[in-house]
Structure formats: structure tokens, C-alpha cells
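Handout, section B. The chain below has 711 residues.
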Amino acid sequence: MSFGANSILDMGRWALFASQVQLQVTGENIANVNTEGYSRRSVLLEEGPYIDYSPGQLGTGVKATEVVRHFDEMVEAMYLGQSALSDMWGNLFEQLKGVENLLNESSGTGVSDALSQYFNSWNEVSQRPDNYGARQTVLNDAATLISTLKQVDNDLSLMQQRVNKEISAQVDEANTLMQEIADLNNEIQVHQVDGQNNANALFDERARKLRSLAELMDIRTIDNGGGNLTVLTEAGQTLVDGESAFSLEFRAATKTKDLRTNSTFDGNVYFDGSDDFEYTIEFVASNAGDPVGQVGSGAGAAQFRVSLDGGVTWLANEDGSERHFSARGYDDRVNVEGLQIWFGSDTDSQGSGTGTFVDGDRFIISPHQGLYWVQNTSHAEEITPQTHFNGEANPQRLTGGSLTALMTFRDSYVGKYRSKLGELAESVIWETNRRHSQGAGLQAFTETEGTYRVDYIDKALASDSAGLAFGDRLQSGSSFMYVYNESTGLLASSAALDFDGNGMIFNPDIHTLEDVRDAFDRTFNGAINATIVNNQLRLEAEEGYTFAFGTDSAGLYAALGLNTFFKGSAPNTMAINEKVSGDLDYLATGHVNGAGEMNTGDNTTALSMYALREEDVTTSTAFEGTTKQSILDYYNGIVGNVGTDVNRAQFNANFYGTLAKDLDERQQQISGVNLDEEMSDLIKYQASYTAAAKLITTADQMLQTVLSLKS
């Protein structure tokens, strides 16, 4: 190869091209200084090949090899993790502020004020038991309490419904992003040629999509180069695998079974009802791996335990022992928290499941809409975020992003608030009815009907299958009643219900509604006629008689809704008993004294109602266990929990937001466009371009000189 003007021309041409590319890339950087997700680019230059020559090696100039993108993958991976947590806590904080505003007691119209006014009205009527104005005030304040509790519960329910719509929209957005990332992987595979042609714009677009996906859910990536990028959840479910995208589904209530290899049970679990918690059912035996039993109606049926937090804690009895339930068929279905649960065949819910359960057999019931990762048409895995009752998140589910925030808010926060509000309403109903059912108004009864029904009239009232709303609050004890001569008002008889003809007292683990009916007929034969109508007990005085209720240590009258003030068992079913609202004489302010007398000036029951304001009552939830405190303190605890949750969410939002912002700034230091630096480079590359052009001009002049010599 010869050297001279021609080689200098080539050298100038390559230098001119290199400078031109640098100017082009710099111009692109400047133009995209405000483009979100744009990563700064630069041109890699490489010295041309050397040629051995005399007097020594001579270079051939410069070569622009590739346009590279400045981007730190490690920083970005850390950012995606912190961004998901930041978005989760930030979104959760915004949602919780709505609950805090809902339970704001400063307006003087909240639940706390309604409770106080309700108790105060009993104090007022205790001073004037026979005053109908004071009696009506009790009903009015009770109605205000009911409407307030219903409104709060309804507002919380509406929040959950609104969140479900947002979740559905975000699931669609996530599916779109996953498909777009897969499509970008495919495009990158087409355009990327390592060392020659870098698909920088496509890489930027993919990074933007990944950031958007991380705002919705926690993700991590495995980048094997080019378009071979895999996106997974932190728990390991594959969302994108190269050119393939999986999908998410927001499904209605479902159930799944997980049987051990040596289990012979052939059937499935079924349920009726809804709840905000996921139910994990696990069969238990004395020794691990032993057979447990079969589905049955007797005492030998298989036993299972239930967890509402994924198997970390299990439902317990009041004494703290683990609560076990019997595996029943449809006709004996058991009540567990908010659901009726039974076992049937795979094809018929009311059919018979066959075979034997073994220790460790599991069923999972998701009684609400949940999020599922769909691998294919035959396999879907639930990834609905789940918070254990110890406060830790289930690592096998989603743990970050706004989807996690929305679903955690719906279930673990609003679900708990509604559960506690339900327990509050249940306590108000039960404690009021417990006292009222043993009291007396201004007149005796000629007939009354229980407000609580059972599912089965031939099952023990405290059993899980009976279906009595307050069956779990019953205890063994005596239930007294008084019968009067209607014309004279004198006491005709009084006695405790006799359940066997020999003075046997009520036993909730044995006696059924039929037994209660028979006990009334046996004890007050000829004076009171007891019947069962629509699975509720009805009492009618025979002609010439009236009756009143007395001391009831069993809680039987309150549980059946006899002589009670409230009916219902939850905020949305709570109401005043029509017997009382229809006739104020039946508002029990007094009691039947030892002589069997009902005195109009008696205020015993009214005073006990007012005392309830300060008395400790037993409350129980699956996530807090059993506690004893006053009803007002219990509600104030709900408000306090909301405030604590808001503060915690705000702290974590700020904490993870700061970490994410710091990582984003670190990324911007690498990939962001600095105009001062780019303008400096522009001047430098312009000078290089001018110099290269000068080199070409010089080489041209040299050629002209050589050519002129020939002439």
C-alpha cells in the first residue's frame, strides 16, 4: 500500500464521518434532554489499523465503531425494587387517608358519639321508666346508632368495590405492558447486532415499560443480552420470557385443593357466603401422616382447622386452644366465621365425597375476587397479596406496587376494619339483648316470636352446623319464666325451663331448638304454647294467661331473640325489634322481682344498660383473638388502629420514596443529558469536523500540486 495524498484523503474522510456521527448523536442528546426515559448516547471511536512501513508503523485514521447507551443495569434493578415498594406504600397511604376521614370523630356525628348518646338515653329512661317520651328517646338514639354503624360499614364496602374496579383496570394495564415488553424483546432481537448496531431506542422504551410495570407490581429481571430478557415477580412467577408474555387475571371467588399423596378423599370443598379473608383448611390427626377420617354427620367425622392468614395462625377457642371443625356434607354444613363450609363430590356440591382424609390435606377457599397468574389454560396460581396476622407479607404472593397496595387495602386493612366494626355491632346487639331479654316492660306478653333462626331445628344450638347467629355465646344454665293470670295480673306460676322432666338445665352442646320448644311445653303445659315457625321459636299464651321473662344464665332468650331489643347480628342487618318499636310498653326498663311482680317504676334493666357503657365485654376476632374492654374503648381502638396504619404507611412511603429517588438520581447521573456537557462536546466535535475538512482540503492541494508537476 502506498502512502501519500490519497491516504490522507481517506484519513480525512473517516475523520469527517466520525465527527459527523458525534455531532449527530450530540444533537440527538440535546433534542431529547426532556424526553422521559431517554438515555444519553455517545460514539465509540477506534483507531484505524496500523500498517508496517518505513520509517515505521503508520496509522490509517479513526473509525466510529458504535453508538452506545449510557445506562447502569444494576442501579436500575435496585430502583425497580424500591420503586415498587414506594408506589405500594404511597398508594396505600392515599387510600388509608380516606378511611381516616370517614372515621373522623371531630364532627360530633360519628360512631363514638352515637354510642355515648345511646347509653345516655338509658340513663335518662332509668329516671323516668314509665315516661313514654323517655322511652321513645331510647328508640330514637338506638336508630341513630344503627344508621351510623350501617353508614360506616356501607362506606367501607363502597371503598372495596371502588378498589376492585381500580384493580381490574390495573390488571389490564399490566397485561398490556407485559405484552409490549415481549414485543420489544422481539424487535430488539431483530435490530440488535452486538458491536455494530445497538437498538438503543428500543432498550430505552423497554426500560420505560419495565418502570411502568414496577409501579404496578414487584418485579425482577434476568437479562441475558439483547432481546433475551425475562421478567418475574419477586415470588418467581414468570411474566415475560423473551418474546413470550404470560397474563394476570382478576377472578371471582375460587377454591383449590392440595391433597397428600396417600390421601384417598375423592371430592371437593364447597362454601356459601363471602369474606375479606382467604380460608386455609387443613385436616389434622394425632400423628403426622395418619388418616384423619371421612366426611360424616357423627362425632367420628374428620377434623380440620382453619387459618385466615395462609396457615401462619389458626382459629382458636376462647381459652386459646386450637379450634377444630368437623368435615360435614351439605345437610350438616358448618359455619366458620363468615362462611358455610361443607364437602361434596367433584360433580355435585350436595353429593357425597368419598374416601379418607389424611393429616395435612389442604383446601384453600378464596371467597372474594383475587389476582391470579395464568401460566396456561390449565394452570393458574393465586398471587393475591396476603398479610399474615403478625404483620409480615406472604413472600409467595405480590409484595409491591400499586396492585399490592389496592388489594392489601381492600383485604388486610378495610377487611379488618369491617371485621372489627362487625364485632362492635355484634357486641352492642348481644350485650343489650342479654340484659333486655331478662327484663320486663310495662306489660306482660301474650305472644312473641324469636328474631333469630337456625338452619337446622334438630341440631345442638351451639354446634357449628346449627346456624344460630349467637350460638357460640350460649352456655349451660337456667332460663326462668313467669306466667300470670291475665284478668287479675297475679302470678300463676314461675319456673326454669325443664329439659327432661327432672329439672335438667339447658346445655347448648346437646339441646336443639326442638328441645327448647318441648321444654316450654313441658314446663308451662296449659299456659304457654311453643311452636317452631320458619326455624324460629314462637310463644303464645293460652287463653287467660300472660307471661314475662326472668333470669337467664344460659343466654338462651337473647340467642333466640325472645324479649330482645335488637335483631340482626351485623351492621347491615342490625335493627330494632318490631315488638318494641311497635309498642313502647315492651321496652324492658325493669325486671320481674323475687315476688314475681312487674313494677312500672322499676329501672333495674335500664340502669344495667347504662352501666354497659363502662363494663368490660368480651370481643373476639380471628386476627386479635379474645379481648375484654368496654364497647366505647373497643371502638376508640378501631379509630386508633386507623391512625396508626396511616402514620405507618406515610412513614414507609417517605422512606422507600427517598430510596427510589436516590437510585433514580444515580441513574440520571449516568444516563441523563447534561446540556453544559453536550454543548461543550458540540464545540469540540465541530472543531474536529472543521479540522477533518481542513485535512481533506490540504490533501486536495497536495494532489493538485503533484498533478501540476506533470504538466
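Note. The first strand starts at residue 41 and ends at 47. Compare this with the example in section A.
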